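Hey L., structure's done. Input below.
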Amino acid sequence: MSPKRSSRTKTAVAPGKTAADFDVQAYLESTGIASRVVRYRTGALVFAQGEPATDVYYVQAGSIKLSVLSRIGKEAVVGLLGPGDFFGEAALAGQRVRIETASALASSRVLVIEKGLMVQLLHDQPDFSDRFIAHMLSRNIRVEADLVDQLFNSSEKRLARTLLLLARYGQAAPDRTLPKISQETLAEMIGTTRSRVNFFMNKFRKLGLIEYNGTLKINASLLSVVLHD
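Output:
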């Protein structure tokens, strides 16, 4: 049975609010498509590089890894996403096949939205459209910042910045505990070796910038590494 389409519901954002304040989850539930939720176990594949691009995805819970595999078999991690993030949105721009692989870094809950329905939802609800555009702009800014980071910063700074981003530093996130992530994955993300990541992680821990206790907690003081010249 096809999901129920919205009847051009106009749920306005209150005056003084921004696109970031729009309740995406509540809106998606109001459209009747919230039942298209898929749960992924840790390590499960959401979609693979080269598969048809037919859907857009919204992370409700958990963590999703985006990676690219080169022709010689080398993998590069190009993104880690969490609750409130969209991915697979290139399908809306005419991308016919996936250029990356998406997999669950932790147990995750993901809403799958068919491409045509996503276009309809964006058309029906201006506030949802604004929220989605804000997401896209934020992703573009992040990509540019990542490029600058790779070109000009040391691997120590790149690691510190990546950990802060994964912990969503600066956002309303009282708990800065990261999902389980291997040092190999961190090395792939910042373009260095696992041994270098291990060296810097131990250094950060000794300085009290991060905490290990079965999980990894990022302290705000880690920002000093990024800001230090």
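The longest strand covers residues 55-61. Residues 10 and 125 are 6 Å apart (CA to CA).

-- N.
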